């Protein structure tokens, strides 16, 4: 049996671009021959609804970089969340430095009113200008999401304290200044907080046990004789590539991801995921 773990953003699909049909077809073909396809994403489960509804067949999902998972036919399970105390420490640093941050929880994403971050969002637009139309699409998508689909609260920590049923799976920041991002990584990393870069100009803070590598180890206990594959593009995929049997990078992956990988396939937008599965794993062609 094969188990394929696949990142989403930058690997399975790109922002503003339709998912290549070959990727959907590959999931169906893989499941048809009795293998497993597992999405493993930094997104919260509430952010995956549209993608999951677009599939012909359901599949297992590990979300928020391992803070939770959802198996076919079951309810989402949340684990390895951040404590209020850890959130408070991180947010104190972010607010002191006027960083744009948002908090991913088991009920969705919360953040302060977006109007407070106009300066930061404009700086991000400027930073992404060299990407041309793609950069504009990324910011249009992000700003639309922040304004229309997130819950806005004046004081996030006070909100969390008065809603103990809400679990924080990660804190995410977007910052235009690369030096500031690296400074924040130094300031925020601790024994109880794992900090890593993810999408363009983004950095995430999670429970140290909330990693793709740890989540895959837990998942694979159910299939000890299976061969595992991991397909990714970014720094948050390195933990996954370290533990799978076969590491795969899409063509647009960061250099450090390609260096870790046994296979480098086509770019995300060209269906590298589906190409790899059909070329390497599907026996009945």
TrEMBL record:
Keyword Repeat: no
Keyword tags: Hydrolase
SUPFAM superfamilies attached to this UniProt entry: HAD-like
An annotated Gene Ontology molecular function: magnesium ion binding
GO cellular component: cytosol
Short name of one Pfam family: Hydrolase_3
Keyword Protein biosynthesis: no
Entries under InterPro entries matching the protein: HAD-like_sf, HAD-SF_hydro_IIB, HAD_sf
Protein's recorded name: Hydrolase
Organism encoding this protein: Enterococcus quebecensis
Organism lineage: Bacteria, Bacillati, Bacillota, Bacilli, Lactobacillales
């Amino acid at each position: 049996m094969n188990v394929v773990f696949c990142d989403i953003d930058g690997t399975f699909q790109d922002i503003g671009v339709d998912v290549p049909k070959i990727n959907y077809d590959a999931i169906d073909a893989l499941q048809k021959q009795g293998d497993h396809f597992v999405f493993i994403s930094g997104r919260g489960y509430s952010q995956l609804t549209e993608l999951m509804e677009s599939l012909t067949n359901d599949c297992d999902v590990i979300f928020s970089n391992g803070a939770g998972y959802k198996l076919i036919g079951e309810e989402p399970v949340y684990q390895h969340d951040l404590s209020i105390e850890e959130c408070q420490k991180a947010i104190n640093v972010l607010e002191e430095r006027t960083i744009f941050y948002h908090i991913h929880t088991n009920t969705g994403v919360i953040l302060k009113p977006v109007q407070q971050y106009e300066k930061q969002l404009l700086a991000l637009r400027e930073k992404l200008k060299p990407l041309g139309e793609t950069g504009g699409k990324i910011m249009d998508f992000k700003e639309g999401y922040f304004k229309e689909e997130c819950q806005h609260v004046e004081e996030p920590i006070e909100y969390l304290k008065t809603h103990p049923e809400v679990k924080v799976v990660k804190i995410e920041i977007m910052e235009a200044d690369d030096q500031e991002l690296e400074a924040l990584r130094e300031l925020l990393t601790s024994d109880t907080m794992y900090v890593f870069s993810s999408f363009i100009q983004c950095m995430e803070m999670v429970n140290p046990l909330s990693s793709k590598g740890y989540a895959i180890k837990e998942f694979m206990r159910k299939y000890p004789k299976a061969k595992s594959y991991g397909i990714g593009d970014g720094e948050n995929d390195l933990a996954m590539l370290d533990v799978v049997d076969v590491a795969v990078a899409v063509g647009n992956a960061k250099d450090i991801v390609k260096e870790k990988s046994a296979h480098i396939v086509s770019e995300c937008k060209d269906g590298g995921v589906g190409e790899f599965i059909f070329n390497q794993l599907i026996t009945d062609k």
